Amino acid sequence: DPRFNDEIDLRTGYKTDLILCMPICNYEGDVIGVAQIINKTDDSTEFSNRDVEVFQRYLTFCGIGIQNAQLFEVSVLEYKRNQVGI
């Protein structure tokens, strides 16, 4: 793929053979990040449909966790702001 930048491979000596990138979404379906997995440990030449499905399900939980952390941070800031006003 001509879009692949092999600069990191050249610096580290690592050989990237496969990459699977997928979005991390929040509750509303907005993209809040991107995750990737690189190379399979069984020397496969491609990621299977099952790999894609498992990764997608994992990223659903990542999105929930990230959004919950963001909401918690906002609630802590609101709590602190309300404490100053008391």
Question: What are the main properties of this structure?
Answer:
single chain, 86 residues, Beta-Lactamase, two-stranded antiparallel ribbon, 2 helices, GAF-like_dom_sf
Q: Do you know the CATH topology?
A: Beta-Lactamase
CATH class type: Alpha Beta
Strand percentage lies at 15-25%
Percentage of helical residues?
40-55%
Could you give the distance between the termini? Answer: 60 Å
Uncertain segments are none
Number of strands: 2
Q: Number of domains in the coordinates?
A: 1
Mean pLDDT: 93
Organism: Rhynchophorus ferrugineus
InterPro entries: GAF (IPR003018), GAF-like_dom_sf (IPR029016)
Pfam families: GAF
Protein name: GAF domain-containing protein
What does this structure look like?
With 86 residues, the protein is an alpha+beta fold. The chain has a single domain, classed as Beta-Lactamase, CATH 3.30.450.40. The protein contains 2 helices and 2 strands, in the order αββα. It has helices spanning 7-12, 49-85; strands spanning 19-25, 31-38. A two-stranded antiparallel sheet has the order 1-2. Strand 1 (19-25) and strand 2 (31-38) form a beta hairpin. The radius of gyration is 19 Å and the shape is elongated. The model has no long low-confidence stretch (mean pLDDT 93).
